[in-house]
Amino acid sequence: MNKHPEIRHYLREIEKELSDMDSDLKKSIINEINEHLEEKFHFIESPVPDSEVKAEDVKKILEDFGEPKEIASEYKRQLLDEKESFDKRKKSSAKVIILVLALLVIVVFVIIAGLFLLGEDKEEADSTIYEGLGLSSIQIGDDLNKVLDTYGNPEDRVDSGNTIWLDYREKEGIDFLLNKQSEEITEIRFNPGFKGSLKNGITIGSMLDEVQNLSGGALNSTRINLSESHDYTHGWDRVLYEIVDGTGDTVSYKFIDAKKGILFWFDSSGMSTQIVVFTPF
Amino acid sequence: MKNVEKFKNKLEREMKSGFIALLILHIISNSKEPIYGYKIIQEVNQATDGKLKFHEGTVYPILRYLQAQHFMKSYLGESPTGAPRKYYTITEQGKAALFSGLESWQNLRETLSKVFESLEVS
After folding, report:
1. Hey, is the C-beta of A24 within 8 angstroms of any chain B C-beta?
2. Nearest residue in chain B measured CA to CA from A32
3. In angstroms, what CA-CA distances link A37 with A30, A64, A115?
């Protein structure tokens, strides 16, 4: 603190006037004023010792600086402006933050909605089986790369004779047969686990009667005894095969509609276990 | 008459405060080196030939305000008096504020001249 009692008294007066102010701020203001007054004293004190500093000089310095009440009031006024400005900035910042958050929520919502809709589209697009074609995303005639690009590496791959078999049954409920030379899809097979159906609603799990009804019924039916033959070439146009074992019990059913490029496998109870799409003939 | 005196004081205080703030920015902007409070006050007196009557203590709250607006930066440096001095330098925002303030001042002066040109103050 200042060594001059008049100055100390003066500073105390200002401090009193600033009594409602934050103590750190008040301290900083008093220091600031004290520094200024020290500075002024330095210029008048230099040539004379402390004891010889005239009372008039001190009085003049304090008069030049202003009445404690006036100075305190000016600090309050300027700091109020500063506070208002700070509050405005704070409010403005709060508004910006709210706006940004609102935009963020909208963007996130749009993204989620987009993904949801895309997902729905994708699901719808990829879940509809088109007879003689496949799915909208992958169809008969597409090449190996398309399969790999669409589904990634298969769970299993078997190269046999003139055929490549790619298995995605566990993940997708689908497997593919491709021509080894052309590497083009010749058959797409939909298995349990595939979440989709034909446009008429037939899906894995549909019953034989329902499939027959929706397909216009079998034009021909034949029975194959596995102990005698594995020959399924008894016709292609809406032909129903009943496959029996050596004891005559039904093992499965196969219904083929070659003109539409589709066939169905059913278990012994008549429930569809596989739908195969191929090029119509 | 007391009211007139009060009005005059209020008017002067408000006008001075704005003018001194502008002058401070001008002084700091033109200073070739960082400048401290006491020196700023001396420069204000010098620039106005001592005609602008103001209490030195009123400058410091303005300096605080200008700094709070980021128009100036300050740092504590050495001083021959022993206690560290607070030195001020202007910022880019401060330069913009000075330019904008001078424009306002110019416009105000022109407007006031037009409005009061017919009035003579004795």
Report:
1. no
2. B60
3. 11, 10, 69
CA dihedral A5, A65, B28, A31 (to 10 degrees): 30
Nearest to B55 among A38, A39, A70 (CB): A70
Strand A237-244, strand A220-225: pairing = parallel
Q: In what order do the strands lie in the sheet with A250-257?
A: A156-160, A163-168, A174-179, A185-190, A272-278, A262-267, A250-257, A237-244, A220-225
In chain A, what percentage of residues exceed pLDDT 70?
A: 88
Q: Is the ipTM, as predicted for this complex, more than 0.85? A: no
The counts of H helices and E strands in chain B are 4, 3
Chain B nearest CA to A100, separation (Å):
24
Q: Which two tokens mark B96? A: 């913009």
Compute CA distances A186 → A19, A136, A175, A180, B16, whole Å. Answer: 91, 16, 11, 10, 92
What type of residue sits at position A13?
A: E
When pLDDT is averaged across residues B58-79 and rounded to a whole number, the result is 90
Flag whether pLDDT at B122 surpasses 80: no
Say how far apart CA A91 and CA A141 lie, in whole Å: 63
What pLDDT shows up at residue B29? Answer: 94
pLDDT greater than 80 at residue B28: yes
d(C-alpha A27, C-alpha A18), whole Å: 10
- CA torsion angle for A6, A46, B46, B16 (degrees, to 10)? -20
The helix/strand/coil state of B78 is coil
Q: What tokens does A121 get?
A: 């589209």
The three-class DSSP label of residue A46 is coil
Top CATH class, B2-109: mainly alpha
Q: How far apart are CA B64 and CA A148, in angstroms?
A: 69
Contacts of B55 in chain A (CB under 8 A): 64-67, 70-71
Locate the domains of chain B by residue range.
2-109
What mean pLDDT comes out for the span A202-220?
A: 88
